[in-house]
């Protein structure tokens, strides 16, 4: 066991991406220093550490894709690349003194609620510790999803190379190789133009075409950066304008999808400028309303697809026969490497199998019919457990940092309420409150483009419910998470403090009062 075995902390934060580091900063700003950040990798950064594929960049403007409490006046471009975002997170870690709290190389294997001690027992790859409160910030883009296709193992045995975009094999040289790119999401549209000039042949297996808008990207001038350094309010104003524009767009996604027709015409014009072949344009034109799937931004994706060394197969990859990739429509292509840009386990996050709550159920079992939480943060049956970027906190058109900061407000008030209740108390959301919150969410979801737009997206779970996105503005979410409503919670007490339950294994519960 490591030196940290049986260590006890007030708060254990899981993950060191934007959510985990943001939680750590907020804890310190609240005067809480008795916490650790458990990270399975050897460095911070989350998805911006894991995704290092060629061309990796953000599709949210730089000044909006950074913490409000840690502005960066030196962003080099209006849309930043992965190296700059990762470097920003490293700077945040140093600036706010987070290094002493980091436990790198500590993969969380199991979190189990101890009803007698009212704490979480956390087993990691480097030992065991306990915590009063767990803040899970593993994020939905943590664990890649790779389809289990027939023949894939044999392809590897015969010398073929296979990897996911989030686990890029930098030791494999694509130069002159025959490459299959599987998927047409946010990663694929960046990978395709980045690798097309050097591969021998690129075959794109496209299950569903994406709507692609122009990317209005440019270098940020030295004068602009100087101005933001010398007059910080100019950077704040820039952030505010970017935020406001996106807030105004929300109603088209959530209430009036019919208004998105004009946006579709812009996307079609973007395609026509680069793709002159009518047959290829037909393959690349979606049949669903724009916004139903995530709208993608690129100026070089369509030009790359029009190059002579690129083939577009308008069907997903169905199987691999030896060194031949076979599409669902029967199209065959001999390949040396297969790159999967097939997304992540979003509605079935693997971390849920590692969380055991008060009733002995895992979070995955509790969510077997779909993810549900209270205000995107807490789950029924899991006392003193919170999540950052939880169910229905995702966005289709703006910066997730805005949502994360709202959840940090909720986390801070949750911990404050626990302090006021005193020792020997925990908080668990009432099942009725969780159910009521999600009924309202799903009722609002019916009007959105994500449910009515005619597509099958990763936003939806196996039951067709959208359990990932927030059907409103970021300002509305901030109001909803400004503080904890104790009427939505039960106060959980240790068994020894529960009348008539001495010696039992279950914890007592009482109504929470404000």
TrEMBL record:
<dbReference type="Pfam" id="PF00743">
    <property type="entry name" value="FMO-like"/>
</dbReference>
<comment type="similarity">
    <text>Belongs to the FAD-binding monooxygenase family.</text>
</comment>
<dbReference type="GO" id="GO:0004499">
    <property type="term" value="F:N,N-dimethylaniline monooxygenase activity"/>
</dbReference>
<dbReference type="InterPro" id="IPR051209">
    <property type="entry name" value="FAD-bind_Monooxygenase_sf"/>
</dbReference>
<keyword id="KW-0285">Flavoprotein</keyword>
<protein>
    <recommendedName>
        <fullName>Baeyer-Villiger monooxygenase</fullName>
    </recommendedName>
</protein>
<keyword id="KW-0521">NADP</keyword>
<feature type="region of interest" description="Disordered">
    <location>
        <begin position="495"/>
        <end position="514"/>
    </location>
</feature>
<keyword id="KW-0274">FAD</keyword>
<dbReference type="GO" id="GO:0050660">
    <property type="term" value="F:flavin adenine dinucleotide binding"/>
</dbReference>
<feature type="compositionally biased region" description="Gly residues">
    <location>
        <begin position="503"/>
        <end position="514"/>
    </location>
</feature>
<dbReference type="InterPro" id="IPR036188">
    <property type="entry name" value="FAD/NAD-bd_sf"/>
</dbReference>
<comment type="function">
    <text>Catalyzes a Baeyer-Villiger oxidation reaction, i.e. the insertion of an oxygen atom into a carbon-carbon bond adjacent to a carbonyl, which converts ketones to esters or lactones using NADPH and/or NADH as an electron donor. Thus, can convert bicyclo[3.2.0]hept-2-en-6-one into the oxidative lactone products 2-oxabicyclo[3.3.0]oct-6-en-3-one and 3-oxabicyclo[3.3.0]oct-6-en-2-one. Is also able to catalyze the sulfoxidation of methyl phenyl sulfide (thioanisole).</text>
</comment>
<dbReference type="InterPro" id="IPR020946">
    <property type="entry name" value="Flavin_mOase-like"/>
</dbReference>
<keyword id="KW-0503">Monooxygenase</keyword>
<dbReference type="GO" id="GO:0050661">
    <property type="term" value="F:NADP binding"/>
</dbReference>
<keyword id="KW-0560">Oxidoreductase</keyword>
């Amino acid at each position: 066991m490591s030196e940290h075995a049986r260590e006890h902390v007030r708060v254990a934060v899981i993950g060191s991406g934007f959510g985990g580091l943001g939680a750590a900063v907020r804890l310190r700003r609240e005067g809480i220093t008795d916490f650790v950040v458990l990270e399975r990798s050897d460095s911070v950064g989350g998805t911006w550490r894991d995704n290092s594929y060629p061309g990796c960049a953000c599709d949210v403007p730089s000044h909006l894709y950074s913490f409000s409490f840690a502005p960066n006046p030196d962003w080099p471009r209006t849309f930043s690349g992965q190296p700059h975002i990762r470097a920003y997170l490293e700077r945040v870690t140093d600036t706010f003194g987070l290094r002493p709290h980091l436990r790198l190389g500590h993969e969380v294997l199991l979190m189990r609620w101890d009803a007698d001690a009212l704490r979480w027992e956390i087993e990691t790859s480097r030992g065991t510790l306990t915590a009063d409160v767990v803040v899970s910030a593993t994020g939905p883009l943590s664990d890649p999803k790779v389809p289990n296709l027939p023949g894939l193992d044999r392809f590897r045995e015969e010398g073929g190379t296979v990897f996911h975009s989030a686990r890029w094999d930098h030791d494999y040289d694509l130069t002159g190789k025959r490459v299959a790119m599987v998927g047409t999401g946010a990663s694929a549209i960046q990978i395709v133009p980045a690798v097309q000039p050097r591969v021998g042949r690129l075959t794109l297996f496209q299950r569903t075409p994406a709507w692609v808008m122009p990317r209005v990207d440019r270098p940020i001038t030295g004068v602009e950066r100087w101005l933001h350094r010398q007059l910080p309010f100019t950077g704040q104003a820039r952030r505010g304008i970017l935020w406001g524009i996106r807030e105004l767009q929300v109603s088209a996604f959530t209430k009036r999808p019919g208004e998105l027709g004009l946006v579709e015409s812009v996307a079609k014009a973007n395609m026509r400028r680069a793709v002159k072949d009518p047959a290829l344009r037909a393959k690349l034109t979606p049949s669903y309303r724009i916004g139903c799937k995530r709208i993608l931004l690129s100026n070089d994706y369509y030009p790359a697809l029009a190059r002579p060394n690129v083939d577009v197969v308008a069907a997903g990859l169905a199987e691999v026969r030896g060194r031949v990739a076979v599409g669902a429509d029967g199209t065959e292509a001999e390949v040396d490497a297969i790159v999967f840009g097939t997304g992540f386990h979003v509605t079935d996050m693997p971390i849920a199998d590692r969380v055991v709550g008060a009733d002995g159920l895992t979070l995955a079992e509790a969510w077997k019919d779909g993810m549900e939480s209270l205000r995107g943060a807490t789950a029924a049956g899991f006392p003193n457990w919170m999540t950052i970027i939880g169910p229905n906190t995702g966005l289709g058109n703006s910066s997730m940092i805005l949502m994360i900061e709202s959840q940090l407000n909720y986390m801070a008030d949750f911990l404050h309420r626990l302090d006021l209740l005193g020792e020997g108390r925990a908080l668990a959301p009432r099942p009725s409150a969780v159910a009521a919150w999600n009924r309202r969410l799903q009722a609002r979801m019916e009007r959105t483009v994500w449910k009515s737009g005619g597509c099958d997206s990763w936003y939806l779970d196996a039951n067709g419910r959208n359990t990932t996105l927030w059907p409103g503005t970021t300002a509305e979410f901030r109001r909803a998470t400004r503080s904890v409503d104790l009427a939505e919670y039960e106060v959980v007490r240790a068994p020894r403090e529960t009348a008539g339950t001495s010696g039992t294994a279950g914890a007592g519960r009482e109504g929470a009062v404000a």
